[in-house]
Each structure stands twice: as C-alpha cells, then as structure tokens.
Design brief:
Blueprint (H helix, E strand, L loop, with lengths): L6 H7 L6 H12 L5 E2 H7 L5 H13 L3 E4 L7 E4 L11 E6 L5 E8 L17 E4 L2 H5 L1
C-alpha cells in the first residue's frame, strides 16, 4: 500500500526546517516537473526567486536525499525527485538523455541493472544514462 505524504511532511521526514521559500521550491520540483530538470528550468518556473536561493535549496534537497543529481553529459546539472523505498534510500532508476534537445527523461519503473564489481570495491552511487534521440526530435 502506497501512502502519499504531504509536501510539508516530506521536508520534515528529511530533517529539514520548513520555510515558505523552501516549501514553494519543493512543491515546484515535486509536482511541477514530469522528468529531470535543471536550475535554468527551475528559474523559469519560479522567476521571483533568486538564482542563489534556488541553487542552495537544490543542494539542500539533494543532501537530504529528496532529489538526486544527474550528470547526463549535456553540460547542465539535472535533478530528479527521489523515489524513496521502505529503507529510506533513494530508488535508483534509468535516465534517457536526448542528444538533440538535451532533455533528460526518468524511467522510474526501470531499475539500474546490477553490475558485478571487482572484489573489495564498494560503490556509493550509481548512475545509468542512456543517450540517443527522443521521439519528439526524431519526428522533426
């Protein structure tokens, strides 16, 4: 059974203090973007909030494991809302990046495949980005 928590509860569960600006930014990233987004996307969505506040809040949300950052090779850092599992860990998933429009799509229903690692190597982060051309760009 999946229970949806409120935006305020999500911040509190992550150990964050709720402020009006933090809550506004969290609501935008949680509900306003279907896929991965950049700082520029967030700036366009919230033009009344200055860039440094947006960046600091993105960093805070990432450190609190509410967001994860994605290096998709586009030159712009992207972010995606974490899908927390029962152990309170961010559920890793596959990302698709279009080489033409530079959008990054989250495949939240596709888990990152397990990779056999050499003995003694302990990973702390795994990213899985598939690069190609999205359906919209193929139609152009």
């Amino acid at each position: 059974m999946h229970i949806e928590i409120t935006d305020e509860q999500a911040l509190l569960n992550a150990g964050l203090r709720i402020t009006a600006v933090r809550l506004m930014i969290w609501r935008q990233v949680r509900h306003g973007f279907k896929d991965a987004f950049s700082l520029a996307d967030l700036e366009a969505a919230l033009p009344t909030v200055d860039r440094s506040t947006l960046f600091r809040t993105l960093t805070l949300l990432t450190e609190a494991h509410l967001l994860h950052d994605i290096d998709d090779g586009s030159g712009a850092q992207k972010y995606c809302v974490c899908h927390i599992d029962d152990t309170r860990h961010c559920h890793g998933h596959v990302h698709l990046t279009c080489r033409r429009c530079h959008r990054t799509f989250c495949l939240t229903n596709v888990e990152i495949p397990t990779v056999a690692l050499p003995a003694g190597f302990v990973p702390d982060e795994t990213e899985y980005v598939v690069k190609g051309v999205c359906a919209a760009c193929q139609k152009k």
